[in-house]
Design brief:
Order of helices and strands: HHHHHHHEEHHHHHHHHH
Structural class: mainly alpha
Mean pLDDT: 90
Shape: elongated
Helix content: 40-55%
Largest sheet: 2 strands, antiparallel
Number of strands: 2
Radius of gyration: 29 Å
Number of helices: 16
């Protein structure tokens, strides 16, 4: 029986040189021990880079105008959450890759009604508020056109919004119950009661912080904090850590694409970057089966640089 012909693009040539001893267990144990000691020393010296929790209470007390403005955007449907689309609502088509509507395929998995979930429902949980109760009934019984009229009037006047003596002041006429709703929600937030009202969960532990996080993300307050910590997209934020601590450097390839066109200006940037990374990952995964590409390491001969001492000894 004749031997199969040698295929340089696929087969590795038979090694006919010498062999040297190598204790991989010993080398691995030493490497793990060294890394462990270095990690422990760095943890002792630098501690944890974790920042304190950001709450709605912190936000509303630090910047009540920004909170009230964001609450108004939730109520009138102009906030990012209200207009996001899937998986929260059907307000927009969401991100897509060409004709492939990925967001629509996923559908609404976490239903969020910004006006109801962030504003109206939490206010209903407040006790001993007869004026608020009356105004919430007025809001509930009003037609869509009537509500829009109230919101339009209040929104126009909100450009001169002030916070005086612990209260939100907006000189709006014909705004119906909107001034009371925004004022009481602001006071609810400043007391800390809104944080609890927004948190949902089943069972003994309440751990679903989706609603307070979305509410915070709609604000300018959280965006300013992220910018100060270099965590925004145009600051390579995905691979950064808070403060001056190094972050996940291995994410540089994913973050890189957000810095260049068309990804940094496209409304479908996340979907496009994801698709590109999937293609690149597939190329890497199937590299041994792709003619031409699989021959690159053999032709570049970088292995001779890595094992230079070995090749010097075998000359």
């Amino acid at each position: 029986m004749s031997k199969k012909p040698f295929r340089p693009d696929v087969d590795a040539p038979e090694w006919k040189g010498g062999y040297g001893p190598y204790d991989i267990i010993k080398e691995g144990a030493i490497a793990v021990l060294v890394i462990l000691v270095i990690t422990m020393l760095l943890a002792v010296v630098f501690g944890s880079p974790d920042e304190k929790q950001i709450t709605v209470k912190n936000w509303s007390n630090a910047d009540p105008i920004d909170f009230a403005t964001t609450a108004l955007s939730e109520l009138n449907g102009t906030s990012t959450s209200a207009q996001y689309g899937a998986p929260y609502n059907t307000a927009s088509s969401g991100q897509a890759i060409g004709p492939l509507s990925l967001a629509k395929w996923a559908g609404v998995r976490i239903p969020i009604n910004a006006a109801s979930d962030f504003v109206i429902s939490p206010l209903k949980s407040l006790p001993d508020k007869p004026v608020l109760r009356t105004d919430l009934k007025m809001w509930a019984s009003a037609s869509t056109s009537t509500r829009n009229g109230w919101l339009e009037s209040y929104t126009k006047a909100s450009s001169n919004m002030k916070f005086v003596n612990g209260q939100v002041v907006v000189n709006a006429t014909s705004a119906g119950p909107v001034p009371t709703i925004i004022e009481d929600l602001t006071q609810m937030a400043r007391s800390g009661a809104l944080d609890q009202a927004l948190v949902t969960g089943n069972g003994f532990y309440t751990t679903d912080f989706t609603k307070p996080l979305l509410f915070l993300a709609d604000s300018g307050y959280m965006a300013n904090l992220a910018d100060a910590q270099h965590l925004t997209g145009d600051q390579w934020g995905m691979m950064n850590e808070t403060g001056s601590y190094p972050g996940q450097a291995w994410l540089w390839l994913y973050t890189f694409w957000y810095q260049i066109p068309p990804f940094n200006s496209s409304g479908n940037g996340d979907a496009l970057v994801w698709a590109l990374m999937m293609v690149m990952s597939a190329l890497l995964l199937f590299l041994p089966f792709i003619p031409g590409l699989r021959s690159i390491p053999r032709k570049l001969k970088l292995y001779r640089l890595v094992w230079r001492e070995h090749y010097q000894d075998t000359k």
